Amino acid sequence: MCVTFHALRFTAVIPMTEINIVPVGSVDRNILEYLSAALSETIGARCVVSSITVDPSDAFNATRHQYNSTQILSKLLEAGRRNGGKLLGVADVDLFIPVLTFVFGEAQLDNQAALTSVHRLRQRFYGLPEDERLFFERCEKESLHELGHAFGLLHCREWECVMHSSNSIEQVDLKKSVFCDSCAAMLASNGSSR
Ligand SMILES: [Zn+2]
Ligand SMILES: [Zn+2]
């Protein structure tokens, strides 16, 4: 089966679901505002920067000098459960789960909460000159990816689809900020049934 990409953004219209973007610790407001606009355009749901915040300090692991992603996800859910809609936590700290060196994000599959970190998305993390356009693009991709999981999407084999898994920044750069046709269709169907 051949899956094609639209030249323009494919908007999966999910009018009933609100996406709350929740800052986790200290996060540049420009990133949150950018994501709010970009995600609502691609997903077609209303996105708002939430007034809720989540403090990640309890999840700090002093041995690894990183933050436990699953613990932050639980705190996010606890803080935002009453809000309804989806919760996208955005952190600027380095996240891990015990079996992996790091994670770009984590989400509850087909559930309310998703979490992403922008920490490893800057060029300067890799010792390269900063590129803001690339940084924002990466933030958008990883946010769409984790939200996709929260809407019930699994990893996609289409390498340009935003639901393709990324274990390195090179893999983030290879994919596009869009869902392939089949992921977009599933997103629209899952989103409108909840
Ligand atoms: Zn994933
Ligand atoms: Zn896909």
Describe this structure in words.
By secondary structure, the chain is α/β, with parallel strands linked by helices. It has one domain (18-192): Collagenase (Catalytic Domain) (3-Layer(aba) Sandwich), CATH 3.40.390.10. The protein has 5 helices and 8 strands; from the N terminus they run βαβββαββββααα. It has helices at 29-43, 69-80, 132-150, 169-174, 181-192; strands spanning 18-24, 46-49, 60-61, 66-68, 86-91, 95-96, 105-107, 113-117. Strands 2-1-5-8-7 form a 5-stranded mixed β-sheet, with helices on both faces. The longest helix has 19 residues, at 132-150. One zinc ion binds at residues 156, 158, 161, 163, 179-180, 182-183.
Descriptive key words:
Collagenase (Catalytic Domain); five-stranded mixed sheet; three-stranded mixed sheet; 33% helix; alpha/beta; 194 residues; globular; disordered N terminus; binds zinc ion
Q: What compounds are bound to the protein? A: zinc ion
Mean pLDDT comes to: 91
Low-confidence spans: pLDDT under 50, at least 5 residues? 1-10
Distance between the termini: 29 Å
CATH class placement: Alpha Beta
The total of beta strands comes to 8
